[in-house]
Design goal:
By secondary structure, the protein is mostly helical. The protein has 14 helices and two strands, in the order H-H-H-H-H-H-H-E-E-H-H-H-H-H-H-H.
Length: 306
């Protein structure tokens, strides 16, 4: 019987009346998932390290001291040196909450369909066996922050699928990045701020496509409202969105940093901003598809076929 199968009230921390903070539950989850990586091939390890390094910008992963890099270049020792470095990188990754989640997603992408099914089963079991709700769910090989399910489907997953189409990479990149930050942030205010900044960047990218302009979102509000054909009652939606998002989007500049740090951001506020971003992207979908189709027709001289 796994921990996930133990009836409520029979877990040690429950019987002893111990309160487990989410941060401690995360640490325990990270320790437990280490077993998922026991049977990795060297190629899988290197792919996972590269994925985590790319997603987090951790320059320490995949690179090493000069003497190790020199050894990796030697025919005789290169393979062994690379394996040693990959093992060290994986161990480092599995000591960090965010990097561990990314690594599990990367591991899933390295597996066959049957192995993916088994991994998903184990991940679901580990999430269910956590001492407290970790605030994340596993879906189709990816971790997602838990929210209102109907809103998630309409304003998050549906929008991601649509943005995967041609011509929308400038919107999808910051939107997907913001979602990744949001789903692993928990109550980490700084990470939530960065998630909101990425959401703002996604809507700004949409505004630039809608208006064929390279100006900031704050300067494009009226044009965006007109392009979307919003009724008068809904035209005020963009004003608070831009005003609030700008507190985080532009606070990384030298000028704004001199004024002080970005204000504290809570989970509920960040969640609201994520859903509002999805709503704005949904409003722009039809117009953007027309723009893309018109551009395709101008390029080929033929109407775009579905």
């Amino acid at each position: 019987m796994s921990c996930a199968d133990v009836p409520s009230g029979e877990r040690f921390h429950e019987r002893m009346g111990l309160r487990i903070p989410q941060e401690e539950a995360r640490r325990r989850f990270v320790a437990r998932v280490a077993g998922l990586f026991d049977q990795m091939t060297p190629t899988q390890k290197e792919r996972i390290v590269k994925k985590v390094a790319f997603e987090t910008g951790d320059l320490r992963l995949g690179a090493g001291p000069k003497h190790l890099e020199q050894q990796m270049a030697l025919p005789l020792y290169g393979k062994l040196a690379r394996q040693v470095k990959a093992d060290a990188d994986v161990a480092s990754i599995l000591s960090d909450w965010e990097q561990t989640l990314i690594a599990i997603e990367a591991l899933y992408g390295c597996m066959s369909a049957g192995q993916q099914q088994e991994l998903s089963h184990r991940v679901h079991g580990l999430l269910q066996g956590a001492e407290v709700d970790l605030g994340i769910a596993w879906r189709d090989g990816r971790f997602w922050r838990k929210g209102a399910r109907l809103l998630d489907e309409a304003l998050v997953h549906d929008e991601l699928d649509w943005l995967a189409g041609p011509g929308f990479a400038a919107i999808r990149r910051p939107f997907a990045h913001g979602l990744r930050l949001y789903r692993v942030a928990g109550s980490d205010s700084e990470m939530l701020k960065s998630a909101v900044a990425s959401m703002y960047e996604a809507v700004e990218a949409m505004a630039k496509l809608l208006t064929e302009s390279d100006r900031d979102l704050s300067a494009l509000k009226d044009q965006v409202v007109k392009a979307l054909g919003l009724p008068r009652e809904l035209r005020a939606v963009l004003d608070p969105y831009v005003a609030y998002g700008s507190r985080f989007r532009h606070a990384d500049s030298a000028v704004d940093s001199a004024r002080g740090t970005r204000p504290h951001l809570g989970e509920a506020e960040a969640e609201f901003y994520v859903y509002l971003t999805g709503l704005l992207l949904r409003l722009g979908r039809g117009k953007l598809e027309h723009i893309r189709d018109d551009a395709e027709e101008d390029r080929t001289g033929q109407p775009r076929t579905q």
